[in-house]
Design goal:
Number of helices: 6
Radius of gyration: 15 Å
CATH class: Alpha Beta
Number of strands: 5
CATH topology: Rossmann fold
Strand order of the largest sheet: 3-2-1-4-5
Largest sheet: 5 strands, parallel
Number of domains: 1
Order of helices and strands: EHEHHEHEHHE
CATH architecture: 3-Layer(aba) Sandwich
Strand content: 15-25%
Structural class: alpha/beta
Helix content: 40-55%
């Protein structure tokens, strides 16, 4: 059984579905909603590494807080506690790093259902997390 569940949360319907799934199927687990302020791959992301934070604008921080507030509202609907965390970087890398740093037992991530050429060219965060994660990943659809 999973004691600590990480749910990457961006406010989208698939992310909300993943959060609801975590609450419904893991009633005794500590659930952590993670928002990643995306910093594109490049020199800054490579120089900083997963454990350091890149300074971001106050506006980006406020937006992230607002998104996680909506996650907290979902938690209230389920009468559950929710831990929230904001980090910066490439989403797939940061999600995997947080799973390692926070001793996570399971990642529950929403699928954006990309198909065809879009999925082949762009990939998806969920797909990359599944490939890189040191812990089990459940993709909610």
């Amino acid at each position: 059984m999973a004691d600590r569940v990480l749910v990457p949360f961006d406010g989208s319907p698939p992310a909300t579905d993943a959060l609801e799934f975590a609450f419904e199927h893991f009633p005794d687990a500590t659930v952590i909603a993670l928002y990643v302020i995306e910093i594109p791959d490049g020199r800054w992301a490579q120089a900083v590494g997963p454990e350091l934070q890149i300074p971001v604008s106050e506006r980006a921080q406020e937006y992230a807080s607002d998104v996680l507030e909506s996650a907290s509202e979902v938690a209230t609907e389920y009468d559950r506690e929710l831990e929230t965390k904001i980090v910066t970087g490439e989403p797939d890398h940061r999600i995997v790093a947080q799973a390692e740093e926070e001793s996570i037992d399971l990642i529950v991530i929403g699928s954006h259902s990309q198909t065809g050429i879009s999925r082949l060219l762009l990939g998806s965060v969920a797909e990359k997390v599944v490939r890189r994660s040191p812990v089990p990943v459940l993709v909610a659809r």
